[in-house]
Specification:
662 residues; Rossmann fold; 22% strand; binds adenosine-5'-monophosphate-propyl ester
Length: 662
C-alpha cells in the first residue's frame, strides 16, 4: 500500500508552504506547556504518563505503569478507579459543585439549560440507580442512540459509573446500522429519545430503534428520553420513559471502583470491509490520555475557560473532548444540539458571543462551509472571547486554516490541528500552543509521550522532505485495546503491516524539510466525508443490496467543502434501464436505499450508471482509475484493463452528469 496519486499532488503543494506562526509572547507567558514538557516526556515516556495518570482520582493507586506484549498493552493495570467519579464527583467534593458543566443550547431558539457539576452528579446518580433497577450490571453493554441533549452525557456517565460499557451510535444512523452494532456488541439495553431537533424539525429516533428491535432479540429494555414530544409507538414490556424511572430515583449513588483496564466503551467505526469495527477502550489509560491532551493541547484554564467542541457525542471526538477529557478537567462547556444554520447562518457566532466561548474545536468541513457562507456572519458578532482554535477529523487545507485564523480567531488565536483516530482514543499529533510555531495545514509534532513516525513500505523512517505511511512506534495510554470480539481483525488491521512492530494508522503523511508532520489522508479504502469515516466497501455493500443493482464500485473523490465525496459507479441488473446512461428515478431510489441501509451521510454525491466497470485481468475493480475519472484527472496507463474502452465510456458518462449534486 503506498500513498496514491492525489497524495503525491498534495505533497507537492505542501512543499511550497512557507508561512509559519510563532506563538505570541503573551500566550506563551501563560501557557500550560513549555518546551520542557517534550524533554521530560522523551526522557522517560512511561514515567511521564504515570505522572499525568496521578492527576486522576484513584480508588487504589497503581504501581504498574505499562505492560506491553505486542499488540496488547495494559496501563496502570493494578490501579482501580471510577470514570464518572473522575468526571463529576471529585469536582463537587472539591467545592466546585456550583460551577457550570454545560451551557446547553437546543436547536429551537431559546431552548437552553444550565447544568452545574452538582446538577450533573445528581442526574448521573439518579440515572445510575435507574439503570441498576432495570438490571444493568458491570460489563453489560448499553447502546445509546440519542440527540445532543444533556441526557446523552448523563447516560454515558451513568453507564461508566456502573462499569457497563456504552456503545454510542450516532443519531444519524439507520435502523439497519443499529441492528449491526447492537448485535455485534450484544447489547442488552438501549437508551434513546423520542427524537431530536435537526434542521428545524423533530427527527425521529425511537422509530428507528423500534424498527431495529425486530432484529435484536437480545435487547431487554429500551429507556426513552422525551425530547420532542412527538408520537411514538410503545411496547409496555420493553420500553420505559426516562422521566418515569429516573426522576423517582434517589439523588445519590455509591460508585464502585473498577480496574484501570475495565472496558469503558465500544465505538463502531468503518474499516476497509463492509462490517464496522467495534473499537474498544478501557478506563485508566484512556482518561489519562484524554485529560492530559485536553489540558495541554487546549491550554485549559478550568477557572475561566468555556470550551466548545462542536462534534456529536456519537463520534469519538464527542467522547474524548466533550465527555471524558473536559469533564475530568472540570471545565465549563457549551453543548449545542442542532445544525450550524438553524436560526440563521450566524448561529454559532451568536453562541460564542453569548456564552463567551474561549476555545472552539471543530472540523475543517464546518470551517469550509462557513467560508462559503461568507465573512459577514462571524463579522457581525463579538468573538473576542476566543483565545484558541482547534481542528480535527480531516486534513485542513491552508486556505481554510488561514480563514479560520483571520475571521474566527481575529489573527490572535493559536490554531491546533489535531490528528488522531477513534482507535487512538485521544490526540496524537498536534502543536502545543505557546510552544510550537504552527504552519497552515500541518499537525506538526507528536504529542509529548507519543512516538509517531513516517515510514516507507519497509518500515524505515523517511528522511525530512519525504512522504510515507504514518505509524505509532510505542504503545500509548489511550490506545484501543482491541476490536470487540475480533482479535484476528485487530492484529490484521493495525499490526500485521509491520510485523507487530508498529501501529499502522492507515494514513499517509509527510515529514517536511523542518521535520514537521503533515497528514495527507487515508491510504486505504476508508473515505472521509465531512469528517465522517466510511468505507468504500460498506457503501458498495449497501448499493448491491438494492434490487436493481448488479455491481457497484465506490470511490472518495476530493470535494471543496466536504473534503471527500462519495462517487458510486453502478451497473444495473437489467441493462435496458440505462439505455441513455441516466435514469433519474432509479438513481434517486438507489440513493434513498443507501440512506436507509446506512445513514443519509453515506448517500453518494453522484451515482454513475454504467454498463460495465473497469477491471484488471484478475477481476479486481480498478478504483484508482475510477477516482481519477471522478476527479476528472488524466487517466494515464489503462493497458492492464480487460477492456480499456470501459474507462473512456465511464469518463464520458461522468462528464455528462457532472452536476448531479444534491
Ligand atoms: O484520516 C485521518 C482523519 O480521520 C481519520 C480518523 O477518523 P475517526 O476515527 O473517525 O476520528 C476522527 C476524529 C479524531 C484519520 O485516520 N483525521 C483525523 N484528524 C485529522 C485527520 N486527517 C488529517 N488531519 C487531522 N487533523
Amino acid at each position: 500500500m503506498t500513498p496514491t496519486g492525489d497524495h503525491t499532488e498534495a505533497v507537492e503543494a505542501l512543499l511550497h508552504e512557507e508561512r509559519s506562526f510563532a506563538p505570541s509572547e503573551a500566550f506563551a507567558a501563560h501557557a500550560n506547556a513549555t518546551a520542557d514538557v517534550y524533554k521530560a516526556a522523551a526522557a522517560d515516556p512511561e514515567a511521564w504518563w504515570a505522572l499525568q495518570a496521578r492527576t486522576l482520582e484513584w480508588a487504589t493507586p497503581f504501581e504498574e505503569v505499562l505492560a506491553w506484549d505486542s499488540p496488547h498493552a495494559t496501563w496502570f493495570a493494578d490501579g482501580t478507579l471510577n470514570a464518572s467519579v473522575n468526571c463529576v464527583d471529585r469536582h463537587v467534593a472539591a467545592g466546585r459543585g456550583g460551577k457550570v458543566a454545560f451551557h446547553w443550547v437546543g436547536e429551537p431558539e431559546g431552548d437552553t439549560a444550565t447544568i452545574t457539576y452538582a446538577d450533573l452528579l445528581e442526574r448521573v446518580s439518579r440515572a445510575a440507580n435507574a439503570l441498576e433497577e432495570l438490571g444493568v450490571k458491570p460489563l453489560d453493554r448499553v447502546a445509546i442512540y440519542m440527540p445532543m441533549i444533556p441526557e446523552a452525557v448523563v447516560a454515558m456517565l451513568a453507564c461508566a459509573r456502573l462499569g457497563a460499557p456504552h456503545s454510542v451510535i450516532f443519531g444519524g444512523f439507520s435502523a439497519d446500522a443499529l441492528v449491526d452494532r447492537i448485535t455485534d456488541a450484544d447489547c442488552r439495553f438501549v437508551i434513546t429519545a423520542d427524537g431530536g431537533y435537526r434542521r428545524g424539525s423533530a427527527a425521529a429516533l425511537k422509530a428507528q430503534v423500534d424498527e431495529a428491535m425486530a432484529s435484536c432479540p437480545g435487547v431487554e429494555r429500551v429507556l426513552v428520553v422525551q425530547r420532542t414530544g412527538q408520537e411514538v409507538a410503545w411496547d409496555d414490556a420493553r420500553d420505559v420513559w426516562w422521566h418515569d424511572i429516573v426522576d423517582r430515583q434517589a439523588p445519590v449513588h455509591e460508585p464502585a471502583a473498577f480496574p484501570a483496564e475495565h472496558p469503558l466503551y465500544v465505538m463502531y467505526t468503518s474499516g476497509t470491509t463492509a462490517k464496522p469495527k467495534g473499537i474498544f477502550h478501557t478506563t485508566g489509560g484512556y482518561l489519562t490520555h484524554t485529560s492530559t491532551t485536553h489540558r495541554l493541547v487546549f491550554d485549559i484554564k478550568p477557572e475561566t475557560d468555556v470550551c466548545w467542541t462542536s462534534a456529536d457525542i456519537g463520534w469519538v471526538t464527542g467522547h474524548s473532548y466533550i465527555v471524558y477529557g473536559p469533564l475530568t478537567n472540570g471545565v465549563t462547556q457549551v453543548m449545542y444540539e442542532g445544525t450550524p444554520d438553524a436560526g440563521g447562518k450566524d448561529r454559532w457566532w451568536r453562541i460564542v458571543e453569548e456564552y463567551g466561548v474561549t476555545i472552539l474545536y471543530t472540523a475543517p468541513t464546518a470551517i469550509r462551509t462557513f467560508m462559503k457562507w461568507g465573512d459577514e456572519f462571524p463579522a457581525s458578532h463579538d468573538l473576542s472571547s476566543l483565545r484558541l482554535l482547534g481542528s480535527v477529523g480531516e486534513p485542513i487545507n491552508p486556505e481554510a486554516w488561514m480563514w479560520y485564523r483571520k475571521h474566527i480567531g481575529g489573527g490572535r488565536c493559536p490554531i491546533v490541528d489535531t490528528w488522531w483516530q477513534t482507535e487512538t482514543g485521544g490526540i496524537m499529533i498536534s502543536p502545543l500552543p505557546g510552544v510550537t510555531a504552527t504552519k497552515p495545514g500541518a499537525a506538526m509534532v507528536p504529542f509529548p509521550g507519543i512516538s509517531a513516525e513516517v515510514v516507507d513500505n519497509d518500515g524505515d523512517p523517511v528522511p525530512d522532505g519525504h512522504g510515507g505511511l504514518l505509524v505509532i512506534t510505542r504503545p500509548w495510554p489511550g490506545m484501543l485495546r482491541g476490536i470487540w470480539g475480533d482479535e484476528e481483525r485487530y492484529r490484521d488491521t493495525y499490526w500485521s503491516r509491520f510485523d507487530g512492530r508498529y501501529y499502522f494508522a492507515g494514513d499517509g503523511a509527510k515529514r517536511d524539510e523542518d521535520g514537521d508532520l503533515w497528514l495527507l489522508g487515508r491510504v486505504d479504502d476508508v473515505m472521509n466525508i465531512s469528517g465522517h469515516r466510511l468505507s468504500t466497501a460498506e457503501v458498495e455493500h449497501a448499493l448491491v443490496g438494492h434490487p436493481a443493482v448488479a455491481e457497484a464500485a465506490v470511490v472518495g473523490a476530493s470535494d471543496d467543502t466536504t473534503g471527500q465525496a462519495i462517487v458510486a459507479f453502478v451497473t444495473l441488473k437489467v441493462a435496458d434501464e440505462v439505455a441513455d446512461g441516466d435514469d433519474a428515478e432509479i438513481v434517486a431510489s438507489i440513493r434513498a436505499h443507501v440512506a436507509e441501509v446506512i445513514s443519509p451521510i453515506a448517500k453518494p454525491r453522484q451515482i454513475i450508471l454504467t454498463p460495465d466497470l473497469p477491471k484488471t485481468r484478475s477481476g479486481k475493480i480498478m478504483r484508482r482509475l475510477l477516482r481519477d475519472v471522478a476527479e476528472h484527472r488524466d487517466l494515464g496507463d489503462v493497458t492492464t484493463l480487460t477492456d480499456p474502452t470501459v474507462v473512456n465510456m465511464i469518463d464520458g458518462l461522468m462528464a455528462a452528469h457532472a452536476s448531479d449534486d444534491d
